[in-house]
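## retry 2 of 3
previous attempt timed out at serialization; input unchanged, resubmitting
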Amino acid sequence: EMEVALNHARTMNVGDETPFLQNFNPHRRYSIVYELATCPKLTMLAAELLGTTQVRLYQTSIFRKRPNDLATRWHSDLRAAPIDTNDFVTAWIPLHDIPPAEYGGTGLLYADASHRDVASALWYGPDHDASNRYECTDHGFISAGDISWHHGWCLHSAAAN
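## retry succeeded, writing output
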């Protein structure tokens, strides 16, 4: 699966440099990922955040950011989802401890309230630095197994490793 992820990353970028490797929908192959993604506590939290009683799993992904990988550009997850909704949350669960940026960590940086910016589509581009438009939050140290939730339209990025 590593070679498949490497080949996919290469096709999405120019050359061999990539911001990360990504494995799509591992819940379809690994029961432990399915159990985590559909566990009642997570689904209940997602439903609470969305103000509903039920949620549906759209996708699972495992990201691997290796030493010397590039920065992950500013993006919103819902922009890439082929569904017509604004009711979408992402749960980011690191599989290992992520130290704060000042100690080399590359956790997610969130553009605060960017999910409410209806003008976003008018200025947003792949090389745009959202930190010039929004207050940004880096949660600092995050432990393996912690959960960071963000809205599907929330712009976020990660520094280079």
